[in-house]
Structure to design on (226 residues):
């Protein structure tokens, strides 16, 4: 299957700082990538859909100025958590579909455990 | 609205068989996925059903009934490493995956 790489896997940052998370499709071009957030023992919550070359589409209730998404190339999308607060601590996961494999199955990155102290 | 219903937790014995049920309501339907997620890790793909019937893949099988909005994941010859959460995720008319909270499966020796 296609490979999606997410970096970093873990990050600890101080309140008020910003953190950037990268999501790369290694062996395919992803025009669309998805960013999820997951709280312990909860379902994946779609935050936004990242579209290459255009603005991301944010889900209701997600602050676009706080969670900046950039999809500058067909293989890279970034999520920047700005002015992080402890309540932003969570597990963030990106996914992408491979048009060459029917564009249905979602391939996930490894996830990023963010802890804001 | 869109809704996924799975049991919160199930317990089974190593070597046994377990069936995890999922009922769903979505706006349109473009297939249903099952994912496995170990604690602290991202989900990994198990199966995809778009037509009614049973799909078998090794120890794992998945069944779909579109008319009933129902699917199940069948795990055979359970191993300790199968302890994980299992996520049922139908895809709606916009090709968006709809996620439930998943079923935590506990395997006991």
């Amino acid at each position: 299957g296609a490979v999606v790489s997410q970096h970093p896997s873990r990050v600890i940052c101080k309140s008020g700082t910003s953190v950037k998370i990268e999501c790369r499709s290694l062996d395919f071009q992803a025009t669309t990538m998805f960013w999820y957030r997951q709280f312990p023992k909860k379902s994946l919550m779609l935050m936004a859909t990242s579209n290459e070359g255009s603005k991301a589409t944010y889900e209701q209730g997600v602050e676009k100025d706080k969670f900046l998404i950039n999809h500058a190339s067909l293989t890279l999308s970034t999520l920047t958590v700005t002015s992080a607060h402890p309540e932003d601590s969570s597990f963030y996961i990106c996914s992408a579909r491979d048009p060459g494999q029917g564009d249905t199955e979602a391939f996930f990155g490894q996830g990023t455990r963010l802890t804001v102290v | 609205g869109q809704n996924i219903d799975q049991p919160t937790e199930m317990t089974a014995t190593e070597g046994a068989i377990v069936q995890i049920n999922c009922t769903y309501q979505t706006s349109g339907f473009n297939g249903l996925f099952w994912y496995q997620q170990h604690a602290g890790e991202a989900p990994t793909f198990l199966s995809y059903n778009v037509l009614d019937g049973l799909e078998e893949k090794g120890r794992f099988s998945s069944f779909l009934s579109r008319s009933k909005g129902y699917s199940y994941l069948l795990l055979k010859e359970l191993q300790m490493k199968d302890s994980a959460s299992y996520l049922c995720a139908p895809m709606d008319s916009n090709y968006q995956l709809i996620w439930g909270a998943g079923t935590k499966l506990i395997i006991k020796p």
Summary: Chain A touches chain B at residues 1, 6, 41-46, 91, 93, 103-111, 113 (CB under 8 Å). Chain A has a mean pLDDT of 91.
